[in-house]
Write a structure and sequence with these properties.
The complex is a heterodimer of chains A (about 80) and B (about 550). Chain A is an all-alpha fold. Chain A is built from four helices and one strand. The N and C termini of chain A lie far apart (about 30 Å). Chain B is an all-alpha fold and about 550 residues long. Helix content of chain B is about 55%, strand content about 5%. Chain B has helices at about 1-5, 10-15, 20-25, 25-30, 35-40, 40-50, 50-55, 55-65, 70-75, 75-80, 85-90, 100-110, 120-125, 125-130, 130-145, 155-165, 190-195, 205, 210-215, 240-250, 270-280, 285-290, 310-315, 325-330, 340-355, 355-365, 380, 425-440, 450-475, 485-490, 500-510, 510-520, 520-540, and strands at about 370, 395, 410-415, 420, 480. In chain B, the strands form two sheets. Chain B has a two-stranded antiparallel ribbon. The longest helix of chain B is centred in the last third of the chain and has 28 residues, at about 450-475. The chains are: A mainly alpha (about 80), B mainly alpha (about 550). Chains A and B meet through helix 1, helix 2, strand 1, helix 3 and helix 4 of A and strand 4, helix 28, helix 29, strand 5 and helix 30 of B. Strand 1 of chain A pairs parallel with strand 5 (about 480) of chain B, so a sheet runs across the interface.
Chain lengths: ~80, ~550
């Protein structure tokens, strides 16, 4: 379905399970994906700002890498 | 006509005319009337034309006066009654109400009167006379006739000088007193004087070549050397640039622990010496393997950008390899054994996986095969796994990949030794494009490099998040990660607060299908509801 294509549910569950070594309850992964979306939002926003400041046209990998740390630190639990 | 409109006291001229009663019109109305009416009283119109002078003397006076400020103040009533007067008025000058406007008008008038600040200077040239250079010039004029050209030193002395230089063995005592240095420069025959005036010589250090090396090359403090060196548990957080050094100077890798095998940032000798001297080598690994639960373990850090330069020169000696060999090695070797070498190799492997795909796809056939026998890989997922291994432990195979260009499933290994896939690039790209668009980058074209960086970031993010979640669940004594853990996490991330709930965020960010699933999930809703209900009850009780 469209949702499946948009949201790789099994993949997310696998990833989280691998990292935390714990099972996920039924719908927790949706929230995780939501959080991921928020993270992506932050990341892309920061990357856009960064690339604009650097005078690039699109979003370069460099600017993404630069803001990754910032975005990750924002999403520290 | 404008004078009609401006005249604030129409009754005045009417009374002065004498024809007042029949007309009974203000200038405004007379203007608006048809011309026929005006023609009926021809002399009246003439008089109207000549009216303004007697009727508006204050106005006139004000406009005629040089600084209009006072006169303007004198007639405030007029101004108030005819606010639009200055638009059509005969006065050229706009009425400045604000102090700045008044100041501007004053300025303009002062300029017209020739009171510019630079006027005096320009006219009299006072400044030039006062400058020190002029004083010098005057002095030179006074002194010029008396001065004589400097007499150059006689050539004979020069010869003696030369002799003295020719025989440096002479004692200093034999020499005459050293010649007095000349303190002035002769005006003429500069050729001979060149020998006397030594060119300025800098300190001896600069003449030598070794300064280039002796200058300290910027180094990093130990504290900023490598983020997350001690407690990093995951392989995803190993920097790509770290790996390159190991490849470039192969054989060095076994010296360093994997967790800080990051010599790549330092090409020069200083950097490496520095690394050798100051970095702890195997302590981190042993600590980790001892099972200490040191604080927060995830400590994901993004790729440090110093590695950017390295990426171009980086050559992947990444081989494809055979599934069958892998099978053999997999079954013959235990999975991850907690020793240094093994860990290092795993890190390298994970790094290899993290490399951009295009390199693997294009150049796979070119490289001889290198792989780590201790690698735990199941044949199903490996298919064709590229690896980078340290040289000491590698076995090189001469096999060449036949099916080189093939899309592989990338598999990474978490710190718990569990393999996990990364998010599909399609999804990441879609999300990234969407959010880039909302961020204002309307024509968001996400290149491959950018996508790789984003994928890396999202890998790190998921690792960080899931470790946090695991910690929460562990703290709660649960075996499973709940929605409540997720709620706690989002609250701690400051994503949700009193005004924004997770559901409002979900409504904004999630597609409808997922939203429905979230809606159906009872626990978080119940929790929220319960809190609200409790508050209500308390209020009712009170």
């Amino acid at each position: 379905m469209a949702a499946n294509k948009f949201y790789p549910r099994a993949t997310v569950r696998k990833i989280v399970k691998a990292h935390s070594k714990r099972n996920l309850s039924k719908n927790a992964d949706v929230l995780i994906f939501l959080d991921y979306g928020l993270f992506m939002n932050t990341l892309m926003k920061e990357a856009t700002i960064n690339s604009k400041q650097a005078g690039e046209r699109g979003i370069s990998a460099k600017s993404v890498k630069k803001v990754t740390e910032l975005a990750l630190s924002k999403f520290k639990g | 006509m404008p004078t009609f409109r401006r005249s604030p006291l129409p009754q005045n001229h009417n009374s002065s005319n004498g024809t007042v009663d029949t007309e009974r019109k203000t200038p405004r109305t007379s203007r608006n009337e048809d011309p026929a009416a005006a023609k009926q009283i021809p002399y009246g119109s003439n008089k109207l034309a000549s009216l303004p002078k007697p009727t508006t003397p204050p106005r006139r006076a004000s406009s005629a006066g040089p600084p209009s400020q006072k006169s303007l103040r004198r007639t405030p009533g007029i101004q108030a009654r005819t606010p639009g007067a200055h638009h059509l008025g005969s006065t050229r000058r706009p009425i400045a109400v604000t102090p700045h406007g008044r100041a501007a008008i004053r300025e303009v008038e002062a300029r017209r009167a020739g009171l510019t600040p630079g006027k005096d200077r320009r006219r009299s040239g006072r400044q030039q006379r006062e400058s020190p250079r002029d004083a010098l010039r005057v002095l030179s004029r006074l002194l010029a006739p008396k001065t004589q050209p400097v007499i150059p030193t006689p050539p004979a002395r020069l010869v003696t000088d030369m002799k003295r230089r020719k025989y440096p063995d002479d004692d200093l005592d034999d020499d005459a007193a050293p010649e007095r240095p000349r303190l002035s420069m002769p005006l003429e025959d500069s050729d001979e004087d060149d020998s006397l005036l030594l060119p300025p010589r800098s300190a001896g250090v600069e003449n030598e070549d070794y300064t280039g090396y002796s200058i300290e090359i910027p180094r990093r403090a130990v504290s900023e050397q490598a983020p997350g060196r001690y407690s990093r548990g995951s392989f995803g957080s190993v920097r790509l640039s770290d790996q390159f050094a190991n490849l470039n100077e192969a054989g060095r890798g076994h010296v360093f622990d994997s967790s800080f095998a990051m010599g790549g940032a330092y090409d020069d000798e200083n950097g490496e010496e520095f690394m050798d001297n100051y970095l702890p080598r195997e302590d981190t690994v042993t600590l980790r393997n001892l099972g200490f639960d040191i604080g927060r373990q995830s400590d994901i850090r993004p790729q440090v950008l110093t590695g950017d330069d390295m990426e171009d020169t980086f050559v992947l000696t990444v081989p494809p390899r055979d599934v069958h060999d892998l099978e053999k090695t997999f079954y013959s070797n235990p999975p991850i054994a907690p020793n240094d070498e093994n860990e290092a190799s795993i890190v390298e492997e994970s790094l290899a996986i993290l490399q951009p795909m295009e390199i693997e796809e294009e150049e796979e056939e070119l490289f001889p095969e290198v792989y780590d026998p201790e690698q735990p890989e199941s044949p199903a997922e490996v298919d064709q796994e590229d690896m980078e291994v340290e040289e000491g432990e590698t076995t090189v195979e001469a096999a060449i990949a036949t099916h080189a260009v093939k899309k592989r499933k990338k598999v990474k290994i978490s710190k718990h030794g569990i393999r996990y896939p990364s998010l599909p690039a399609v999804v990441v790209k879609k999300l990234a494009t969407m959010y880039a668009r909302t961020a204002g980058n309307s024509k968001a074209k996400i290149s491959k490099d950018t996508l790789d960086a984003i994928m890396q970031a999202s890998d790190w993010f998921l690792e960080q998040v899931s470790e946090d979640l695991g910690a929460y669940a562990k703290h709660a004594g649960r075996k499973t990660i709940d929605e409540s853990d997720m709620m706690t996490l989002m609250k701690r991330q400051r994503q949700t607060n009193a005004t924004t709930t997770a559901f409002s965020l979900a409504q904004r960010h999630l597609p409808r299908e997922l939203l429905q699933e979230l809606r159906m999930a009872p626990p978080p809703k119940l929790k929220k509801g319960r809190r609200l209900v409790r508050v209500d009850e308390e209020e009712e009780e009170q």
